[in-house]
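Re: [help] complex structure
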Amino acid sequence: MAVRKLAPDDIQPKSFAFSPENEAWAEGQIAKYPAGRQASAVISLLWRAQEQSGGWLPRRAIEAVAAKLDMATIRVMEVATFYTMFNLEPVGKYFIQFCGTTPCVLRGAGDIKKVLERRVGEQNHVSADGKFSWLEVECLGACCNAPMVQINDDYYEDLTTETFETLLDDLAAGRPVKTGPQNGRHASEPQDDIKTLQDPKLYDGSMIGAWRKRFEEEAVKTADTGEAAAATASVPEGGKAAKPPAGRPEESKAAETPATRAKAGETPIHPADRKEASDPSKATKIDPETQDKAKPAPQSDKSYVATPSKPEAGRPVPDAPTTPIAGTPPSDADTRRDGSESKPGVTVDKDNKTS
Amino acid sequence: MAKIIVDGVEVDVPPEYTLLQAAEAAGAEIPRFCFHERLSIAGNCRMCLVEVKGAPKPVASCAWGVRDCRPGPNGEPPEILTKSGTVKKAREGVMEFLLINHPLDCPICDQGGQCDLQDQAMAYGVDTTRFHENKRAVMDKYLGPLIKTSMNRCIHCTRCIRFTTEVAGVEDLGAIWRGEDMEITSYLEKALGSELQSNAADLCPVGALTHKPEAFHYRPWELAKTDSVDIMDAVGSAIRVDSRGREVMRILPRVNEDVNEEWITDKARHIVDGLRLQRLDRPFVRENGRLRVASWQEAFAAIAAKVKGTSPDRIGAIVGDLAAVEETYALKLLMQGLGVRNVDARQDGSIVSPAHGRGSYLFNSTIAGIEDADAILIIGSNPRIEASLVNVRIRKRWRIAPPPIALIGEQVDLTYPYEYLGAGPDSLAELVAGRHSFAEKLKEAKRPLVIVGPGALARPDGLAILSAAASLAQGVGAIAEGWNGFSVLHTAASRVGALDLGFVPGEGGKTAIEMAQGGVDVLFNLGADEIDITPGAFVIYQGTHGDKGAHRADVILPAATYTEKSGTYVNIEGRAQMANRAAFAPGDAREDWAILRALSDVLGQRLPFDSLNALRQKLYGEFPHFAALDRVTPADAASAVTALAGLGGAAGREAFASPVKDFYLTNPIARASGVMAECSALAREIRLEAAE
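Output below.
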């Protein structure tokens, strides 16, 4: 977390008062909560105070909110300092929150940062003309449009150094700018193939297990070159995991949707039937081919809470509590705490050293 | 009751107990930092982790209730382990994290030797660290003249925040920023505005908050510890006086659930420097208008010469606020021997008197009894500065479930909300007549409590006010079987003991104020420093500090303070408690009873005891309840209240005003203390700021 501090006294405004419309709005916020719980409105009031003060929270604003909500000033101070979206020092007219989390960095956020450092200067400092300041923040949740920045209230995505420079120029000159993706995309659709979702392969089941095929092909490739047998070791083997066996696409009820049924000319399943079908006790309803599927999902007999003392009908009570003793190292236990077994063929390197 | 198995031991505990309490009931020790019995549960230090059978992770035992545990698969009681390998590992892990940012400055830390972190690191920690990065550094904060901060040491337990917010009732402290950067501070580092703030430093489990006046003065293992009782107010808080050699180094609270729980006021704690400053260490005699050092014989001779030539009608004796029962008794016997009826222990002009029965001047509900009250009326008192720990109890009662509370008197911040009924006797009369809605609330209450403070009593019409309050108490049913809700509050530690002894003017005797205003020619002043004595009378001052009384004196007899003598003090509830000697009086100063015994010999009225034990034997023979130490000897309050209510009388219209103008400077010891002077100046500043 960036070092935050209160703005020095000489730039703190001498007073703060909500504007009449904000005052009315604040009353509305307070009215949302029961009488005596007016302190619950503290974050919304601080946010509005920040908007009114040009993007940052002066000390007087904190005191004004405290007085308005009948709270001790230190309590409001605690909130204002806890949340990093409250700026305690002045920010530029355009406050740029630059995303520096992994997906953006992989897509070139480093270059964007260099632009910021060159054009705006150091982080947390307002540029000489007062137009810009920037701050590196954690993921803003627009990874599919990486790299991106947030300027005041808007996202600017799919940036390149060129588009970003243009964007900054436009903002500095007061020209209108386009929010959202800067590379012509409308939202986060695939850039070169806008009709991906219409690919029939997605729906005929042929894609199932494709990832495994790819792993196997790659494993063969690496085995051919005679290196890194360890790479194959990391690929799960056998059908133990609840995943379809490789290369054998099988029919899965889960893939049957009302849409596909309608397409195949079948009648939609009546909800009552569906409910009946999911009842494991009704053995006659079970389609022999898919009998395995109709079983109730395998339930882990591991539970994070003690087994209820009242056993379920028809289920035997285990003789001994099966809950693992907390703190047992996984390597010492036959079964692991998530119920899976140790992967065969994988030796656990206890020292966690690369050999 | 709920059964739970702790380390294989099955115990039966109330279901609302936490696992930590259940473990303690089973005899298992759980380390903790943030948990404190008298504060809300924070659960943020994680030191109290235990293993609960069936839970996937260790749980914080301070925040997990016994009733929240699931039983075993076959209905066995829930089981927790406090000594298993997992628990040991968890504690070591927590300790390692706590120590990551804790500086290794124990050798220069005042908490060294009395530090929870130090002790628990020894008991539950590991001996090495795996952290090779730099430690966090935090700016120290200014929190006022009493608390020294060293915030690098803070482990973020938030006990200080919870104490000031919950017990002291001032929302001054808070935690700003977050995560590793979290810092405990007051808003813009303002000084704390509580008369109980030093307790926060006591609560600090590490050396982050320490007592500023005592900084670098001692190590805890060097001190001799003496259990005693505080006399800065009339509450009688249990204290421990720690001394090194002849010098008292510090005063700490002791736990006494009936009186102070485990808090004391800043005044009780930090007058330590006042015990050695401005002391009278040898007798003085006034010659040609100037005091000169004299010997005991010279001083006694001067007194004897004056007393012999004066008729008993023109001799008087006043007992001050800090006198113990023993010397008051000795003085009473001496004055009886001389035939003097002008004796008074009420230098503030209060009208409380044993004439109306003991129940008329005691805090009959007892302090712990405040928690049972379901409606409270405070008349003419500011309990926050007159008896801070009574105020803490009222606040505690208010926090349990707010009862109706009302105040007649000065409108002040009592740290809890109350209904303000008015400023003076008129409002009380309204209430007595049942013309105010609060009278209904008092009537509806099962255990109403009426507290009458010194602001209502220390005035000429005090008796009429006391009578009105008594008839109100009677009218609303405050006196009932098993409940006595008529309570009188005092500010002087000596007051109840002196009234028990009957140290009030005899028939035709003059009151303290009359004596001070020229009613007598020879005035024996036993430590009364809050009264103005007009010129003319020959004043013998027996006391400890060069204060107002000594300045006016013609003969000064140096005496011992409460830490330098063994003395009985009776608190407002009527609880006799013993203060013990922790050090010796300076120079020629002597214990008070011994001075009076020696003087009585010179005056030809030799007192019939030669030792403190002999004095006490005689005292206990005459007043057996002084021997019942640490217990409240209840008074027959019903008849006292009836007697008071029958007095009637017309009260004036003047508003009630607390006699305590400055909390920090109420007695000669406090006035001699530099720390108290600093606190007083700061409090004045805060008041001025608030007035703006």
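The mean pLDDT of chain B is 91.
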